[in-house]
Amino acid sequence: MAEFIHDDLRGSTFEQVDLSGARFHHCQLNGVGLSGVRMRGVELRDVEITGELAGVTVNGVEIAPLVEAELNRRHPERHQMRPTDPDGFREAWATLERLWAGTVARAQRLPPERLHESVEGEWSFIETLRHLVFVTDAWIRRGIQGQPAPWHPLSLPWDGMSDTPGVPRDRAARPSLETVLALRADRVAGVRVLLASLTPEQLEAHTVAVDAPGWPPPQSFPARECLEVLLNEEWEHRLFAERDLAVLEASPIDHLPGR
């Protein structure tokens, strides 16, 4: 089978091509993701879509508001993840700490080696926690607090991020859950302290640009934006973790999807 990795196929034409079983990962189709795409006369059956929806119309019905309403119904705490003032951010963080405590307790009931298992090519539970350490290091320690290179060696950026000097990317590391939880507890406590004294003026202020390579880029950001990124990452990755823990709990170790 053909493989196209880091290839520029813009302007290519695919006609009467069988793409059954093909896998697209971090690809762009007419913009970012599927932005600006029109599909007419298609058949969608047994399709799973995970991502951000905006302006998505199916048979004349915009579905994004329907999906949002259903997600809010399923997860009553979800509305807290769009705070408008410092108290709202503090409440959202307290909710995330409580929810993550339950998720970690669920993970701790599995054999330790299962927490390094990937479900359908997604991050393992340990890798998910490592990524959230990276998110806090990037958007709080660097983005808000101005530390030029705050990353711990176990911090894990997203797979599509380009290699950047000074930013770790050790996918082969296999730290214990206890090691990663201790690291994460330090980051969570740091956010809690930051939010405890957050004022409306600080929330709306722009951060000081960091003059060093890394992520986020060396530029100024509204503090609100940095905190919103953190809340979104924490919320979404916990749902991913819960989804994959359910598979781990139900699957024998030698029969995991993607193993």
Structure at a glance:
The protein has 259 residues and is mostly helical.
Helices and strands, with pairings:
Elements: E1 57-58, E2 61-62, H1 64-74, H2 86-108, H3 125-142, H4 177-196, H5 200-204, H6 223-250
Antiparallel strand pairs: 1-2
Helix pairs in contact: 2-4, 2-6, 3-4, 3-6
Architecture overview:
InterPro entries: 5peptide_repeat, DinB-like, DinB/YfiT-like. Helices cover 41% and strands 2% of the residues. With 259 residues, the chain is an all-alpha fold. It has a domain at 82-255: Four Helix Bundle (Hemerythrin (Met), subunit A), CATH 1.20.120. It has a two-stranded antiparallel ribbon. α2 packs parallel to α6 and α3 runs antiparallel to α6 (223-250).
CATH third-level topology of the domain at 82-255:
Four Helix Bundle (Hemerythrin (Met), subunit A)
State the fourth-level CATH superfamily of the domain at 82-255.
dinb family like domain
Q: Strand percentage, roughly?
A: under 5%
Q: How many E strands?
A: 2
Which keywords apply here?
single chain; 259 residues; mainly alpha; Four Helix Bundle (Hemerythrin (Met), subunit A); two-stranded antiparallel sheet; 6 helices; globular; 5peptide_repeat; DinB/YfiT-like; DinB-like; DinB-like domain-containing protein
